[in-house]
Amino acid sequence: MLEAFFISLPWQQNSTIMRMPSVESFFTKSFSTFSKFPLAIAASIAGSVVSWILMHSSFGKSESLMHVVMVCYLGMLLFTSSALFAKRMKLSAPQNMILQGVCAALLVLYYFMLPSHLHTSVYIRYSLYALGLHLLVAFAPFIIRGEMNGFWQYNKIVFLRILTAGLYSSVLYGGIALAIVAVNQLFGVKIDGKIYGDLWIFIAGIFNTWFFLAGMPENFEELD
Fold first, then answer.
1. What is the pTM of this model?
2. Confidence at 14, pLDDT banded by 50, 70, 90
3. Closest by CA position to 152, among listed 85, 106, 220, 97
4. Which of 219, 217, 210 is nearest to 2 (CA)?
């Protein structure tokens, strides 16, 4: 997401000084991304929060919490696909609400279909569902329109965005983790080891998703 902020910043024509992003610009871009993919980002936040609760739970792993995390991950992919499809087809607000409602209903149905005890076959089916939804993100804007060049240009952008988001997330996690280690070693501050897991959940679950979605194409027609 930070990359999108820097790309969108204006350059001064008659000066060698680059304008640095302001706090207002940061929140404006963040809100803009959220307004385009509200349910996808909400699903990633919900999944991250439940993952944090699951990690800190003193009662061990709860099957119901695992179900919520699984559904939230699928929801993030499904809502991203539906938002891209709605934008590409220029659906009206009522049509978009109906589409998102159908997606939400499917997720609720899947949650209640999950068995109380998770076993190998459940995880295999879940992996296939996740793979299918990843592929759906790859061609959701081009399901109806046959624009082959636009399709490949779009997928090139998505692939590069995945790599960029992964790189930024890894560097951010590594930098903050090293800073925590330094504080612990230099000042003798007692820090719970679970903070590294908390940090990873936040970066991988929320920052990585938000950053990735911030770089999605705006105009699909131009890609062709």
1. 0.84
2. very low
3. 220
4. 210
